From TrEMBL:
Keyword Signal carried by entry: yes
Leader sequence residues: 1-19
Keyword terms, alphabetized: Signal
Molecular functions (GO terms): chitin binding
Domain of life according to the entry: Eukaryota
GO cellular component, one term: extracellular region
InterPro entries hit by this protein: Chitin-bd_dom_sf (IPR036508)
Record GO biological process: socially cooperative development
Protein name: Chitin-binding type-2 domain-containing protein
Organism: Helobdella robusta
Keyword Signal: yes
Length: 132
Protein backbone atom coordinates (compact mmCIF):
# COMPACT_ATOMS: atom_id res chain seq x y z
CA UNK A 1 0.00 0.00 0.00
CA UNK A 2 2.81 2.41 0.86
CA UNK A 3 4.44 1.84 -2.57
CA UNK A 4 1.19 2.82 -4.31
CA UNK A 5 0.98 6.02 -2.27
CA UNK A 6 4.57 6.95 -3.16
CA UNK A 7 3.93 6.36 -6.88
CA UNK A 8 0.76 8.46 -6.80
CA UNK A 9 2.61 11.19 -4.92
CA UNK A 10 5.41 11.22 -7.50
CA UNK A 11 2.96 11.37 -10.39
CA UNK A 12 1.35 14.39 -8.79
CA UNK A 13 4.52 16.42 -9.40
CA UNK A 14 4.75 15.74 -13.15
CA UNK A 15 3.67 18.88 -15.07
CA UNK A 16 0.76 18.49 -17.50
CA UNK A 17 1.93 17.45 -20.96
CA UNK A 18 5.21 16.00 -19.66
CA UNK A 19 6.23 12.46 -18.84
CA UNK A 20 8.52 11.73 -15.92
CA UNK A 21 12.00 10.43 -16.74
CA UNK A 22 14.46 10.04 -13.88
CA UNK A 23 17.33 10.85 -16.26
CA UNK A 24 15.93 14.20 -17.43
CA UNK A 25 15.73 17.35 -15.37
CA UNK A 26 14.70 21.02 -15.35
CA UNK A 27 15.49 24.11 -13.28
CA UNK A 28 11.99 24.45 -11.79
CA UNK A 29 10.83 21.38 -9.89
CA UNK A 30 13.32 18.62 -10.79
CA UNK A 31 16.65 20.35 -10.24
CA UNK A 32 19.74 18.12 -10.56
CA UNK A 33 22.23 20.61 -9.10
CA UNK A 34 22.47 18.88 -5.74
CA UNK A 35 25.53 18.59 -3.52
CA UNK A 36 25.49 14.82 -4.13
CA UNK A 37 25.84 15.24 -7.92
CA UNK A 38 28.38 18.06 -7.56
CA UNK A 39 30.50 15.91 -5.21
CA UNK A 40 30.52 13.25 -7.97
CA UNK A 41 31.63 15.86 -10.53
CA UNK A 42 28.31 15.77 -12.42
CA UNK A 43 27.39 19.23 -13.72
CA UNK A 44 25.59 18.43 -17.01
CA UNK A 45 22.20 16.75 -17.41
CA UNK A 46 19.49 16.08 -20.01
CA UNK A 47 16.73 18.71 -20.07
CA UNK A 48 13.22 17.27 -19.77
CA UNK A 49 11.47 19.67 -22.17
CA UNK A 50 13.75 19.74 -25.22
CA UNK A 51 16.52 17.47 -26.55
CA UNK A 52 18.28 20.48 -28.11
CA UNK A 53 18.91 21.90 -24.64
CA UNK A 54 20.65 20.63 -21.51
CA UNK A 55 21.07 21.57 -17.84
CA UNK A 56 24.37 23.06 -16.67
CA UNK A 57 24.99 23.33 -12.93
CA UNK A 58 27.54 25.60 -11.31
CA UNK A 59 29.71 24.87 -8.26
CA UNK A 60 27.25 26.54 -5.88
CA UNK A 61 24.19 24.60 -7.09
CA UNK A 62 22.94 27.16 -9.59
CA UNK A 63 20.93 25.69 -12.47
CA UNK A 64 20.90 26.97 -16.07
CA UNK A 65 19.19 25.69 -19.21
CA UNK A 66 21.70 25.82 -22.06
CA UNK A 67 21.12 25.58 -25.82
CA UNK A 68 22.99 23.04 -27.96
CA UNK A 69 24.51 24.34 -31.20
CA UNK A 70 22.36 24.27 -34.35
CA UNK A 71 21.54 20.78 -35.64
CA UNK A 72 22.76 19.12 -32.42
CA UNK A 73 20.97 17.35 -29.56
CA UNK A 74 22.08 16.50 -26.04
CA UNK A 75 23.67 13.07 -25.45
CA UNK A 76 23.68 11.86 -21.86
CA UNK A 77 26.03 9.02 -22.87
CA UNK A 78 28.93 11.39 -23.56
CA UNK A 79 27.71 14.55 -21.75
CA UNK A 80 27.82 16.81 -24.77
CA UNK A 81 25.72 17.93 -27.72
CA UNK A 82 26.05 15.71 -30.80
CA UNK A 83 24.90 16.02 -34.40
CA UNK A 84 21.17 15.32 -34.63
CA UNK A 85 21.48 13.17 -37.75
CA UNK A 86 22.86 10.35 -35.60
CA UNK A 87 19.34 9.72 -34.31
CA UNK A 88 18.34 9.02 -37.91
CA UNK A 89 21.12 6.46 -38.37
CA UNK A 90 22.96 8.73 -40.82
CA UNK A 91 26.70 8.44 -40.31
CA UNK A 92 27.84 9.45 -43.82
CA UNK A 93 27.31 12.94 -45.24
CA UNK A 94 28.36 14.97 -48.25
CA UNK A 95 31.47 17.12 -47.80
CA UNK A 96 30.61 20.56 -49.19
CA UNK A 97 34.16 21.51 -50.17
CA UNK A 98 34.73 18.56 -52.56
CA UNK A 99 32.58 15.90 -54.22
CA UNK A 100 35.51 13.46 -54.04
CA UNK A 101 35.28 13.48 -50.23
CA UNK A 102 32.61 12.69 -47.64
CA UNK A 103 32.15 12.99 -43.87
CA UNK A 104 32.05 9.80 -41.81
CA UNK A 105 30.78 10.08 -38.23
CA UNK A 106 31.12 7.59 -35.39
CA UNK A 107 28.44 6.80 -32.82
CA UNK A 108 30.34 8.70 -30.11
CA UNK A 109 30.01 11.93 -32.11
CA UNK A 110 33.41 12.35 -33.77
CA UNK A 111 33.38 13.01 -37.51
CA UNK A 112 36.15 12.63 -40.07
CA UNK A 113 36.62 13.83 -43.65
CA UNK A 114 37.27 10.78 -45.83
CA UNK A 115 38.44 10.56 -49.47
CA UNK A 116 36.61 8.61 -52.14
CA UNK A 117 38.70 6.17 -54.16
CA UNK A 118 40.28 7.60 -57.35
CA UNK A 119 37.70 7.93 -60.13
CA UNK A 120 34.75 8.08 -57.73
CA UNK A 121 32.64 10.85 -56.18
CA UNK A 122 30.32 10.93 -53.19
CA UNK A 123 26.64 10.18 -53.84
CA UNK A 124 24.23 11.34 -51.13
CA UNK A 125 21.51 9.19 -52.70
CA UNK A 126 23.58 5.97 -52.55
CA UNK A 127 25.42 6.91 -49.30
CA UNK A 128 28.68 5.78 -50.89
CA UNK A 129 31.27 6.82 -53.45
CA UNK A 130 30.26 5.94 -57.02
CA UNK A 131 32.17 5.76 -60.30
CA UNK A 132 31.88 8.83 -62.53
Amino acid sequence: MLNAIVIVALLGFVPNGHSWDENKFNCDNNIPCTKEFRDQGQYYFAYDADDTQFIQCDQTGGCSVMQCANETVWSTNIYTSVLAFRDLGQYYLAYDASDSKFVQCAEHGCCFVMECAPGTVWSSEAYTCVHV
